[in-house]
Recover the amino acids of this structure.
């Protein structure tokens, strides 16, 4: 169930201005944490909130995704330490791949992306496992064995596009879900400068704050950490001492790591004064077993002449830091890169050097594995065009990248894949998708498309000129729509010389190339040449005179039969209404479908006049807002009213005040919607 269903939206239109204000306020608050986007998944409503624990503003996720259903966690699975974001989640029972699309990203800059999963037994089914994709590449597997474990996954990456797409992929081991999604721009800091680049990202294994367990088992993050990295406290074994500094730990100028002072202020040392040993399990299914480890140190003791603190750092038995000497009250760092090899865990050993009088000390450590993102996303212009179509036609099955990976390619497209270039859309088949309106110009942005099938829809209007200039196009199927106008010379030429297979059968109002057709076009006055306008105005004037004469005549006739007209109308049967829905209603000047008329007249809400001849409604053309009078014969008007709930469509036999004046003004734009005027 989506956050806010279409019908719920409709019912709440009066709330729109309020909701808008809510968003505005949210935007301003979000700006207070520059470069942060914090999404609370599965949250109902439109308003954001300020998380009291962190002061970070979280927004609902409906804006970033159009699939999945919302759930709440039972209170029995939450305690005082459960973050507010864990209370709701969005789950994805349908579709193999469901994606959040986060735009407004600066391409080429560095970001931290983090996701939180708190199951809380919302569907009674654990274990559950699914894959997480960043764009078209696998990020990591999320494997939740118990309802109360809440894994967090994090990646440091360079934005390949001006958006991120974070996808949950069903691997057949339960329903994917997500509780929170956080994006932080960290480029400004130049942190992890050399280790994260266009091709390599870092996936977090652990970011540990040492020596803080005794004080409070809490996570240090924003605002202590400007980039909202989460430092989790590591439980010290009994053979360690937890120590802390009452004096602040400084950073040297240009210290890119910016480890929070609160993290640096605690540390561990071994009680036996010789060796600190611990290990971290490596991520199961680590994608590439090359790791990056950053260790952070600061000495809390002002060393006397006779004292020294020096130690060697080993990872899995290999010497990675020799004779490390932390500075007094100053952050000192050690970068370690290596391959994990066949090891299944990271074994750390900090051993005093032989001359050292003081034991090793460790304040914090970060462990990452590298992840290469080998696959490239589909061509940006193609993606932009497809995303517009997705929005326009509410294609909720279109998730993530249109072409890649091949397994999750959108079923309506096919793609050209090459080793050196990003994938391109080579065909689009939207046949029988009940699409209406004019043929969208955004299709022209698909510059590598060869085959475009728009057949068996309800497209109206003329065939746009851009289609003829899409040179890659070799098949265009427009058959069985409601297109009008005539086939242009350019399209005709391309069909004639064989460069385009053009299908246009089944468009009753479409004129062949070269033929003179007298169908009056849909109103587009600005584009008409002057003589055409004159002709239309004359026709319109004649029509309006006729209309007035008729209405006067009919009004008189009506007066004679008031009783009959007040008799209740026989209600239209539901089947009749249904049958009308899709049928074009009129034939005189242009064929309008019932849906179009409903749109033009805003659901037949304002009646200008009414009589035996039918009903005249006030309307506006969606294309340019031109005011029009819409006349609908009695039979159809009855149907229109039957579907209108509004009380404003009360019937009245006489024309309303000002209606005649309006009709005189609107004389050139009357849409006549019956055949027996
Ligand atoms: C969130 O609330 C805290 C205190 O409750 C306040 O200090 C902080 O400025 C607020 N943050 C925003 C972005 O409004
Ligand atoms: C999830 O983890 C459990 C326990 O470690 C393991 O047995 C299971 O195979 C994993 N599931 C998947 C799909 O990787
Ligand atoms: C360690 O990494 C930081 C951040 O990437 C970098 O600024 C620093 O130069 C590196 N230090 C060494 C010794 O490689
Ligand atoms: C990214 O960094 C890795 C590891 O430092 C290096 O091997 C690779 O060549 C770099 N790639 C680019 C595009 O700079
Ligand atoms: C610092 O150490 C003292 C004693 O060594 C302890 O009582 C205190 O709780 C510690 N503070 C923190 C913040 O770890
Ligand atoms: C460790 O060193 C401290 C002083 O630096 C000393 O008091 C303590 O006895 C030593 N512990 C062991 C086990 O050697
Ligand atoms: C580090 O010290 C521990 C304990 O003294 C010892 O078992 C281990 O072998 C040492 N590691 C190395 C690489 O020397
Ligand atoms: C488009 O899909 C329809 C089925 O939905 C199929 O009949 C038609 O052949 C397809 N068009 C092309 C060009 O393949
Ligand atoms: C549209 O025309 C093409 C080319 O003739 C054809 O392959 C395709 O099947 C047609 N689409 C449908 C839905 O019939
Ligand atoms: C067919 O006609 C079009 C438009 O005149 C032209 O651009 C195209 O090159 C021609 N193709 C062939 C194969 O002659």
């Amino acid at each position: 169930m989506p956050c806010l269903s279409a019908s719920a939206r409709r019912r709440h239109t009066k709330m729109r201005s309020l909701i808008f204000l809510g968003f505005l306020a949210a935007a301003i608050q979000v700006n207070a944490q520059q470069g942060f986007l914090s999404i609370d998944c599965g949250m109902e409503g439109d308003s954001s909130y300020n998380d009291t624990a962190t002061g970070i503003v979280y927004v609902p996720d409906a804006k970033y995704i159009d699939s999945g259903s919302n759930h709440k966690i039972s209170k029995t699975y939450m305690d005082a330490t459960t973050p507010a974001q864990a209370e709701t989640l969005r789950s994805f029972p349908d579709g193999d791949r469901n994606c959040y699309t986060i735009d407004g990203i600066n391409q080429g800059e560095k970001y931290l992306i983090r996701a939180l999963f708190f199951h809380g037994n919302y569907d009674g089914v654990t274990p559950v496992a699914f894959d997480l994709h960043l764009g078209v590449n696998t990020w990591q597997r999320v494997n939740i064995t118990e309802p109360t474990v809440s894994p967090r996954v994090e990646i440091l990456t360079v934005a390949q596009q001006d958006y991120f797409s974070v996808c949950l992929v069903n691997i057949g081991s339960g329903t994917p879900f997500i509780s929170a999604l956080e994006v932080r721009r960290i480029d400004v800091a130049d942190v992890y400068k050399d280790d994260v680049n266009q091709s390599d990202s870092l996936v977090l294994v652990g970011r540990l704050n040492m020596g803080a367990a005794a004080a409070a088992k809490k996570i240090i993050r924003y605002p202590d950490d400007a980039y909202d990295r989460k430092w989790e406290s590591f439980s010290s074994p009994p053979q360690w001492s937890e120590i802390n500094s009452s004096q602040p730990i400084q950073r040297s100028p240009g210290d890119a790591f910016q480890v929070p002072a609160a993290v640096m202020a605690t540390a561990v040392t071994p009680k036996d004064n010789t060796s600190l040993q611990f290990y971290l399990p490596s991520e199961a299914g680590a994608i590439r077993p090359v790791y990056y480890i950053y260790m952070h140190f600061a000495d809390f003791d002002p060393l006397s002449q006779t004292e020294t603190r020096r130690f060697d750092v080993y990872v899995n038995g290999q010497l990675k830091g020799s004779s490390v000497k932390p500075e007094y009250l100053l952050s000192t760092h050690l970068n370690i890169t290596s391959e994990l090899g066949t090891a299944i865990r990271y074994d750390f050993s900090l051993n005093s050097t032989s001359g050292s009088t003081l034991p090793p000390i460790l304040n914090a450590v970060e462990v990452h594995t590298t992840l290469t993102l080998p696959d490239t996303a589909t061509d940006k212009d193609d993606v932009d065009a497809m995303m517009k179509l997705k929005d326009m036609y509410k294609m909720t099955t279109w998730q993530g990248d249109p072409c890649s990976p091949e397994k999750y390619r959108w079923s309506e497209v096919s793609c050209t894949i090459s080793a050196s270039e990003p994938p391109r859309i080579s065909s689009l088949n939207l046949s029988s998708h009940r699409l209406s309106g004019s043929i969208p110009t955004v299709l022209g942005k698909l510059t590598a498309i060869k085959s475009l099938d728009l057949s068996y829809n309800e497209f109206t209007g003329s065939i746009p000129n851009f289609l003829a200039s899409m040179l890659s196009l070799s098949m265009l199927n427009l058959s069985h729509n409601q297109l009008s106008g005539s086939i242009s010379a350019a399209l005709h030429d391309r069909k004639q010389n064989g460069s385009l297979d053009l299908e246009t059968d089944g468009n009753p109002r479409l004129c062949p190339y070269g033929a003179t057709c007298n169908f009056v076009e849909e109103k587009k006055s600005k584009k008409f040449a002057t003589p055409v306008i004159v002709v239309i105005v004359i026709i319109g004037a004649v029509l309006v005179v006729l209309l007035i004469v008729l209405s006067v005549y009919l009004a008189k006739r009506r007066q004679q039969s008031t009783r009959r007209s007040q008799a209740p109308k026989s209600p239209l049967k539901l089947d009749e209404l249904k049958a009308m829905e899709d049928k074009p209603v009129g034939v005189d000047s242009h064929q309008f479908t019932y849906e179009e008329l409903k749109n033009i007249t805003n659901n037949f809400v304002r009646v200008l006049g009414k009589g035996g001849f039918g009903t005249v409604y006030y309307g506006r053309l969606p294309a340019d807002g031109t005011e029009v009078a819409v006349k609908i014969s009695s039979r159809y008007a009855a149907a229109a009213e039957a579907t209108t709930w509004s009380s404003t469509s009360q019937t009245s036999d006489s024309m309303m005040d000002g209606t005649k004046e309006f009709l005189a003004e609107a004389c050139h734009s009357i849409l006549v919607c019956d055949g027996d005027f």
Q: What stands out?
A: The CA atoms of residues 72 and 175 lie 15 Å apart. Residues 1-31, 522-535, 560-591, 634-677 have pLDDT under 50 and may be disordered. The pocket of 2-acetamido-2-deoxy-beta-D-glucopyranose (ligand 9) is lined by residues 431, 453, 455-456, 475, 477, 501, 503 (CB under 6 Å).
